[in-house]
Design brief:
Number of domains: 1
Largest sheet: 5 strands, mixed
Radius of gyration: 16 Å
Shape: globular
Strand content: 15-25%
Number of helices: 5
CATH topology: D-Maltodextrin-Binding Protein, domain 2
Oligomer: single chain
Keywords: Plasmid, Signal
Protein name: Phosphate ABC transporter substrate-binding protein
CATH class: Alpha Beta
């Protein structure tokens, strides 16, 4: 009985974490790696490698995609990230990424603006955006 419970728990855990995909407009040909994505979403990098200004799009802190992204890409908890941005905003040295409420809103914004970058759950990706990295 315990063996089956553990297997069920493992399967539920695997399905709960679908992963996160970093997406851009299909026309964006900029070179992006995990370090560049981290710098963009922490306000340390303001332009794509092609020279265009970058507009990062995040999601509300309660979404699964945000939790995955913060942990796997930014290596920060939600509390650490909030403290980080509070300091930058207070000193006038930065503005956090615009936040929307779900994957569909991120995809809508990115598919309509070549200068945006965002993250969504891997299972939400469609042909209107290009995946540059999955975590």
């Amino acid at each position: 009985m315990i063996k089956y419970s553990l297997i069920s728990l493992a399967l539920l855990s695997a399905s709960a974490s679908a992963g996160v995909a970093v997406v851009v407009h299909p026309s964006n040909t900029s070179a992006l790696d995990a370090a560049a994505i981290n710098r963009i979403f922490t306000g340390k990098e303001k332009a794509f490698s092609n020279g265009n200004k970058v507009i990062p799009i995040g999601q509300d802190s309660g979404t699964a995609a945000t939790g995955e992204f913060n942990e796997k890409v930014l290596n920060k908890t939600a509390a650490q990230l909030k403290a980080y941005w509070s300091k930058l905003v207070f000193t006038g040295k930065g503005t956090p990424p615009k936040e929307v409420s779900n994957d569909q809103e991120v995809i809508k914004l990115i598919s309509s603006n070549p200068d945006t970058i965002g993250y969504v759950s891997t299972d939400a990706v469609d042909a209107s955006v290009k995946v540059v990295m999955e975590f």
